[in-house]
Automatic annotation (TrEMBL):
Coiled coil: none
GO biological process: one example: antibiotic biosynthetic process
CDD domains: AdoMet_MTases (cd02440)
MF-aspect GO terms: methyltransferase activity
Domain spans labelled Methyltransferase: 64-160
Keyword terms, alphabetized: Methyltransferase, Transferase
The name this protein goes by in its record: SAM-dependent methyltransferase
PANTHER family, alphabetized: TRANS-ACONITATE 2-METHYLTRANSFERASE-RELATED
Amino acid sequence: MNRTPDAPNPFLDPAVRPGLYAEAGRLTSRTSALHRAKSEGRPVADAIVDLALRHAAVTRAAIVLDLGCGRGTTTRALAERLRPAQLLGVDASAALLSRARTRTGAANETTRISWLCADFHHLPLPTASSALAVAAFCLYHSPTPRAVVEEMARCLVPGGTALLVTKSADSYRELDRLVAAAGLDPDAERRPSLYTAAHSGNLTQLAEGPLRVVHTEHEIHRFTFSGHAHLAEYLATTPKYNVPDHLATDPVALADSLSMALPDRPVTTVSTVTYVVATRPEETT
């Protein structure tokens, strides 16, 4: 596929986005490569639960939403540590929901976990029904992330808590330079961030209005890929670059191509992960 530098962001392009998560393997491979590369930064699911325990009033009778739940990593952590009465994982990808259901299993005996394939702009859920709503690494898939935040606010009880998590717009820029230097995508450094819609610089502003922001924190996450083979596992799964078709889905061939152009060595890159905690204002009379 020939993508010019000004082509639509694949995370926002309705012609591309559904195919990115039509099956779970792509996301699984990308996440695995990143997790093995991480050298600095807390596990995000643990950080989310820590913030929920600190800021949210989640009783055993509460309903908790995990929007854009993906493969269920955060869903499981919420079930195991918060133990709400009901936990609902929501995602637009049926394939990811199937993987989440398998990975989560029976997280505990007191929480009923349900799964909903739905558009997070229009949740088929009652108003003021949830005590906590989490949206981690998903708002940047929406061309109108403020509308998603408004929908989260609608679903929260007055005083309920939203937890929003995203990445910085400059995430993994070191990889842009490497991909361009290797000749795999000469325009790599000119391609816009995948996180332009909802990133560390605008997440607080997106939340303010529908919600009241009570806490924001930023954390550097550092990743060191051991060499070209490890790096190729990640590059073969990211939609950002215009890599030749015969390499785009073949990590071995992609690693060979990197090695022909550049010395094989560890590669370090960073991303800022931002957490915003916000509440739905209490109703006034």
